Amino acid sequence: MALQNRVTPYGEIVAVPARGLMMGNRGILHDDARRIVRPFQVKRWIACVLEFRGRRREVMTPHRYTELFFLDEATAFGAGHRPCAECRRADYNRFLGLWEGWSGAPASADAMDARLHAERIERKRKKTYREDLARLPDGAYVALDGRAWLVWDSSLFAWSDSGYSQRRPRGRGEVEVLTPQSAVAILAAGYRPAIHPTAK
To answer: From CA 129, how far away is CA 135, in angstroms rounded?
Structure first.
């Protein structure tokens, strides 16, 4: 039986067998029986590589952080995560530098996490906003027809737990955006997230 540790672009934690290309965490979310009991514990939602310095962990060890998995980095951004400063230092520094250039002020992990948290959660639910599809950068996620779609080049790709399952023309018009506004600004500033090969 699959553990409930896979994250969708809506930020939901679901049980599916596929792991995805990235890992991350939001603190300790599971109990001793490896059941999810809370959607997050901390404001620091990070996205990590699957392997780092040969470290090995038993998934959902009691009293240790909950390992979460994402289809790809764009999915992690859609859910409201950002690059880890330890296992992805170069990506973190690039994200931080673009954040400072966009905001016009020095930033820190704590400052970014506080702002992202305010943009991703509202009354314990996913916070979204409206924007013209033509103005969104590659790597952003939108909600259309009850599904999450990745914006990439001239197309939209439908998210699924095992890859992008459907493609449609990007089009125009106002849409519901899943990716937090600050993360969208970083994408627009030039950050190109890693995406699953099924979108290529």
So the answer is: 13
Q: Which residues of 184-199 are buried (b: 16+ CB within 10 A; e: fewer)?
A: bbbbbeebebbbbeeb
69 and 6 Cβ atoms separated by less than 8 Å: yes
Q: Which two tokens stand for residue 23?
A: 């890992």
Beta bridge partners of 197: none
Pairing mode, if any, of strands 129-132 and 141-144?
unpaired
Beta-carbon contacts of 79 under 8 Å, excluding residues fewer than 6 positions away, are: 7, 8, 9, 10, 11, 45, 70, 120
- Please state the three-class secondary structure of 76-131 as a single string: HHHHCCEECCCCCHHHHHHHHHHHHHHHCCCCCHHHHHHHHHHHHEECCEECCEEE
Domain boundaries, the chain: 4-88, 96-199
Sheet bearing 141-144, strands edge to edge: 129-132, 174-177, 141-144, 147-152, 155-158, 166-169
pTM: 0.95
Neighbours of 109 (CB within 10 A): 15
Q: What is the DSSP letter of 71?
A: S
Contacts of 27 (CB under 8 A, 6+ apart): 40, 41, 42, 44, 65, 66
* pLDDT digits 0-9 by tens, 88-142: 999 999 999 999 999 999 999 999 999 999 999 998 899 999 999 999 999 999 9
